Amino acid sequence: NAGVTQTPKFQVLKTGQSMTLQCAQDMNHEYMSWYRQDPGMGLRLIHYSVGAGITDQGEVPNGYNVSRSTTEDFPLRLLSAAPSQTSVYFCASSEPHKNTEAFFGQGTRLTVV
Amino acid sequence: EDKVVQSPLSLVVHEGDTVTLNCSYEVTNFRSLLWYKQEKKAPTFLFMLTSSGIEKKSGRLSSILDKKELFSILNITATQTGDSAIYLCAGGTSYGKLTFGQGTILTVHP
User: Fold this and answer.
1) Contacts of B45 in chain A (CB under 8 A)
2) A107 and B9: CB-CB below 8 Å?
3) pLDDT confidence of residue A41
């Protein structure tokens, strides 16, 4: 099983550029989320979705958009990249009704110059 | 706003030592407390705790939850250099949302 797949693994952007981080899961999980990880900050929640068509903001949503048109996919869009968005991004999915743990993608290391 | 606090933030020990990592939480609609280990890549799952007082064990690692005092501990006995990692705890809600703590950086010297 592929689990949670994130692309790309690495990306360098110039300030002001836009891009989309892709996340797909093949476990039919209802819940999906995006986190960013900075040194000493743990994982901070950006946006999350409890099902197709439903999204909500997390702790640090500014500068990011999401959509959930299908159960499988949960892309994260950076509209106008800023150096403060340099970070490692993780996508995760889980099935809360089965009380399972969250499964993580392998991460995207983003550098904004 | 949900909040999870871990302590200590960093810890340096020698092989064979026993360590205790702490996690306190304030999570609305709390359902579970999760522990993850992270070694340079994605976090890997260790434990999920939903009931107070029931210890979960996996080899040299064990964890317990206190839902009255809102905290959990992760114990690692007879530490090895391979235990060096960031240990993350997270409070989970009934609909799946996880709030993570800052993490504890554990360094185990030979």
Assistant:
1) 101-103
2) no
3) 81
